[in-house]
Amino acid sequence: MTTAETKTACVSWARVCKECGQQHEGQESHLYEYLDDVDDELVCHICLQPLIRPMDTPCGHTYCFDCLGSFLKDKDFCPVDRQRLQLHQCRPSTLLVRNLLDKLAVMCPYYAECQQQMQRCELQPHLHNRCSAFRRLREEAEKRKRPPWNELKGRKGDGELSADAKHLGTPPRSANRDLPDPGLINPAYEESEDDNTPLRSSLVSESNVVELFREEADEELGLRIVGGKDTPLGNIVIQEIVRDSQAARDGRLAPGDHILEVNDISLASVPHARAVAVLRQPSLVRLTVMQEKGFKPREARSDQHPVLPGTAHGNAASPQNPGTVLQVTLTKSQRSEPLGIKLIRKSDESGVFILDLLSGGLAAKDGKLKNSDKVLAINGQDLRHGTPESAAQIIQASEVRVNFVVFRLAEIQDEGGPQGRVARRVPEPQYFRRRSTYMKDPPGGFSSQEKTVSLKKEPRLSLGITIAGGRDCRSRLPVYITSVQPVGCLHRDGTIKRGDVLLSINGVDLTQLTYSEAVSTLKAQAAQSQVALRVIQTISEESQEDAEAGGGNRSDGAEDAREEAFNWTPLWTRWLGLPSHMHWCRDIVLQKSNNESWGFSIVGGYEESRGQQPFFIKTIVPGTPAHFDGRLKCGDEIVAVNGATTVGMNNSSLIPMLKLQKNKVTLTVVCWPGSLV
Fold it and tell me: Is residue 175 part of a domain?
């Protein structure tokens, strides 16, 4: 291995910033290796580094946006002259200043391997498109995170729990949710009697009650939800659990759970916006949820060995179970003896992971724990959403025996024999999008209309809007308006509203721009004496309740309203009315063996009461190809299958079409972020 490869091999992908390429925590400023000294006028007074997203204060000072935002969370004055200051009073620096910063010369953080120098604004495209070291780190992380489920081979023996497992109690729930019950598969086809596949029966689900307590009235639970009676999904479904949130720390909720009741209020037949309003109730929130558990096996035939929980059949790596849950007990010679384990957290997955076992340490000598194992529990304490610090505290407080429960991905083999050869899937960027070419109508009850406002203004007068989105954000959202400030000329006109999607200003197209490009374009065009702004507004039958749930009742004072303007995001239903040409989609390739189904349910197609409806993913079943792949989400809209549009199909046509795909299917989907509560 070369010196450069050795250096990059020591880099933890979990802590690598995907913008600057350096290792730092998510809330910290980006790091760059500048080639020349930077003028003091371009340095932030808080972090003492060259400015990133510079913001000018009314008193004439300039700071990084993140630095200033963090400072003003606890303080209400300028860090330099201590004049009273609030974030909404600040404005992005001039285009000249931003251009000077963008042109600062930097070197690639992996310079030893790629030998590249460039302007600061070119570093991120370089990392994602040209840097071989960055690409290798990303590919290795993708392999560790989501190995192709159908390429894995079972290993016997080392997946079995020891007799000590009886004393550990019930395994953490994450093991049950991330891994299917032993031998369960999705019954798309009935297997023959001589088939060796596990016996199967009906889908198993159960109802659970989960109580979450907000310490502060406006604290977010950390759920993104989709669905509602006004959408084809019908039910309210959890699309995503926000990392490090209250729901994530609690650990009992998971994506795909159907929310049936909130504080004894039924959500069975309420529109989406009403469900959001109910979930935003302060203090204690008691959720009744229906959770999918996979498929229950039929009773085994007398000539077959029964499948025991936690034994080789259930834990061995297989297409239904690409990993193993292990219990490992380490015994120290004395309480203070270190175990010799380095623990880390990952940026793309919650929980605690083993980074390294120190040579000569107790864990290395024992030999049962391995690098990249995910720590589910230590001494019976749940760490599925824990931190390395909390894990270290548990270890330090333990007596001589330390009991680990870990999840280990199965090893990927690449043998040359006919049965050992595997076709490795090329890692696909998780959020790759392309402009949709599939024309279709929005769901029933949703539509959109274009609006244009033309006004004359003083060149120095602000439009008075804040924006978010842009084609560089995670979901490739269009640029949309987050607030219309009362000090701007658009507020007086009254035509433009919060949530409107920006199409153009003075004829300049805004639909393909990144956030920074959109901000620059709006500022440049707003400096003219006449402005023509074209927007698109989505309309739903529940527009009144949409306004109620949008957060307007959550802020009492003017300061709260301004703070909300920076944090406001549209409800999931706002995106459903956008026309097809505004959608960006991605292709997701799923693979399976012949006698399985894909592991998701769909709703939509032609309905007599609503006409032609788009197809949506409603359920993703644990222990199936769709679940293991990890990219499909509840609420995703299917616009094509194997390149053929789904427009005009009914439910009874699409389902057989999916079943006919023996080993591989390509789904083209549109994914809008669920409503955050």
Answer: no
As a residue count, the chain comes to 677
Same domain, 277 and 352: no
Once rounded to an integer, what is the mean pLDDT over residues 295-300?
A: 46
Same domain, 578 and 652: yes
Count of domains forming the chain: 5
Phi, psi angles (nearest 5°) of residue 532: -120, 115
Q: Measuring CA to CA, how many Å separate 361 from each of 343, 378, 398?
A: 14, 18, 17
Please say whether the beta carbons of 234 and 227 come within 8 A: yes
Give me the sign of the Cα torsion angle 331, 337, 341, 343: positive
Note whether residue 346 is domain-resident.
yes
Q: What is the pLDDT of residues 299-355, one digit of tens each?
A: 433 333 333 233 233 333 333 445 678 889 999 888 888 899 988 887 667 788 898
In a domain, 147, yes or no: no
Reported confidence tier of residue 399, pLDDT bands at 50, 70, 90: confident
Give the model confidence (pLDDT) of 46-63 as tens digits.
888 899 888 899 998 999
CATH number of the CATH domain containing 528: 2.30.42.10
- DSSP string covering 429-496, please? -TT--EE-----PPPTTEEEEEEEEEEE--TTS---EEEE--TTSTT-PPPEEEEE-TTSHHHHH---
- The backbone torsions φ and ψ at residue 562, rounded to the nearest 5 degrees and listed phi first, read -65, -40
**pLDDT at res. 19:** 76
> Is the per-residue pLDDT at 289 higher than 60?
yes
Question: What is the amino acid identity at position 74?
Answer: D
Last residue of a domain, which of 292, 309, 339?
292
Both structure tokens of 187: 């019954």
Q: Helix 95-102 vs helix 515-526: angle between axes, to the nearest 10 degrees?
A: 150
Of 108, 127, 142, the position where a domain reaches its end is 142
Indicate whether 240 and 288 sit together in one domain. yes
Q: Tell me whether residue 85 is in a domain.
A: yes
pLDDT tens digits along 602-653: 888 876 666 778 899 998 887 778 887 788 999 999 999 998 888 878 877 8
Which of 555, 633, 619, 593 has its CA nearest to residue 218?
555
Q: How far apart are CA 413 and CA 370, in angstroms?
A: 17
Are 366 and 451 in the same domain?
no
- Range of 340's domain? 324-408
Beta-strand relationship, 223-227 and 258-262: unpaired
Nearest to 140 by CA among 317, 8, 30: 8
Same domain, 37 and 137: yes
Strands (E), 174-311: 203-213, 223-227, 236-241, 258-262, 265-266, 284-295
> Are 477 and 469 a contacting pair, CB within 8 Å?
yes
Percentages helix, strand, coil for the chain (3-state, rounded to 5) are 25, 25, 50
> Residue 364's Cα: distance from chain center in Å?
34
